[in-house]
Amino acid sequence: MKRVILCADDYAISPGVSEAIAALIADRRINATSVMTVFDGLGPAARALDDAAADTGASIGLHVTLTGAFAPLTAGMAKPSGALPALPRLLLSALSRRLDAKAVAAEVEAQFAAFQDAFGRPPDHVDGHQHVHVLPVVRTAVIAATARHAPRAFLRDVTPARGALNGLDIKGRLIGAFSTGFARDAARAGLVTNRGFGGAYDFSGDHDFATLLGHFLAGVPDGGLVMVHPGRVDDPLVARDPLTHQREVEYSVLRGPQWREILDAAGVSLALPDLGRTKAAA
């Protein structure tokens, strides 16, 4: 059985999402989640997650958040409206190297500090909301902060596993293109990454998520990571994020009776893999 990280993104974006993810963690339906630290109420959410994850060995990580219709922790990343930039704006600024490196570094530091304050320890892994952590400028800040604050954490490499691509999969291939060289850069800092990635698909489409999940799990290698976005829709989620109904769909599959069949058919064990810590991270 290959060992795969099945990671739920966006913990703490809303109570409904957090409660759903915590339940999946407690029931050992997933073995990782990534936490957003930019919202009020993180302390109680962190305690609830720790309670749910007790004795499960689940990886609890930092979901670096630099995009979205919500306020950052520092002033430098805020637009005049007070919110973070939308992904297209951040992407253009990063690719053109016009993104303010000091402002990015300060926000990343603040989010690491917020995680430490809430959980009393560094994150087990680090990734990014909308995969911003692999972009130029942001990548440098995230790798440097991880090496300082969480040297034993693994970083999420979003280079898609070939077998986990879904047809032409423009979205997955584009995400992978932005991640070019990310694992190499992480290794130079003494950090490790997952070995293959899956889970990207068009959330706006009408998909059979059970079939998609099986495809992603079967397609990643041992040490690979599959991202999911389960949750229950509530008013805070609707106000903060356009991804709503599909979270309910994913949650239904992950907690449903077909879950075990999906894992067995893919030859997957939800045991966290040993990603091979380097001497610098030991």
From TrEMBL:
GO terms for biological process: carbohydrate metabolic process. It comes from the Bacteria. The keyword Magnesium applies. Pfam families: YdjC (PF04794). Keywords: Carbohydrate metabolism, Hydrolase, Magnesium, Metal-binding. Coiled coil: none annotated. The keyword Hydrolase applies. One of its GO terms (molecular function) is deacetylase activity. Its cofactor is Mg(2+). PANTHER family: CARBOHYDRATE DEACETYLASE, YDJC DEACETYLASE FAMILY MEMBER. This is ChbG/HpnK family deacetylase. It comes from Xanthobacter flavus. The lineage of its organism: Bacteria, Pseudomonadati, Pseudomonadota, Alphaproteobacteria, Hyphomicrobiales.
